[in-house]
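Exercise 7.
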Amino acid sequence: MSLLFSETVLGPLKLQNCLVMCPLTRNRATDNIPNTLMVQYYAQRASAGLIITEGTSPSPNGLGYPRIPGIFSPAQVAGWKHITDAVHAKVAKMFVQLMHCGRVGHPLNLPAGARLLAPSAVAAEGEMYTDAEGLKPHPVPQAMTEADIKTAIAEFVQAAKNAMTAGFDGIELHSANGYLLEQFIRPNSNQRTDRYGGSIENRARFVLEVAEAVIGAIGKDRVGIRLSPFGVFNDMPLYDAMEADYTYLAQQLNVRGLVYIHLVDHSPMGAPPVPASMKAAFRKMFTRTLILSGGYDAARAESDLSAGKCDLIAVGRPILANPDLATRWKTGAALNAPDMATFYTPGPKGYIDYPALNG
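Solution. The predicted structure, written as tokens, is:
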């Protein structure tokens, strides 16, 4: 019997299978507001047990990329409610990923009055695309004061409450891929000398305070987190203490009782692999649901579930290009190839027009 396609649970939630749709940035939210195109996109993919949305900002300050959605205004909450209604009508569950981009952004992508914030005034290498002027170098961000940190925590809390109003089943904290939460964890981007910098206990403080605050607001059964140890995206280089630091983080997250850790291995995209020993350590130390993602096909997903390496399997590009991925994997049908040229472009092309098996 296939575990991948069997019903399972996530905390108190019943899932129709063990397949999770990864958070996938698609840049279709004009004016940062979820729209009818996005309703269709997510509803098409509701054969997954759990859908995790694209990175969604809890704050105007977090809108680092063009056309990414937020969940801090009434219009955004209303837009998301249409999406959760459509997904729930097809029995899937849905978490919104809260992504504050921090230093990975550009003022041209931010609304008036918003600021590019980070743990320290250290610019990320590389460039950011802007609709206004194309590619621009990442600017030097403003180092957050303790008051800024308190404000950001409050914004995450309000975003979590807004997610409940919008009908989500929970939220995922994006503490991966070089965004604000991970910027505090990593020593290259966090050069602070106060209680939020230095030792891992200090560098992890902001992430854990955010987790505690949102758990206090909506409950631990509704809060997950995404981590990318050994990920190098957005200028997050490897460092000697990484395995020890993330082991500490796993222990602390377990104490706080989050419903899941979503551990991503970016080696299929060219990053160093997450060592099997680290995945096994997370599995041992974290007693609730473990989601693994990174280059899975159906056979490997079934193998890792059967071996007890994780509880759920998350996939990105396969479900981007195959809205009915669960059916295709279950039947062994051929897969559509993803069109990389349309990953981040506005409009329906390459977004809602991938064919399903039933036409």
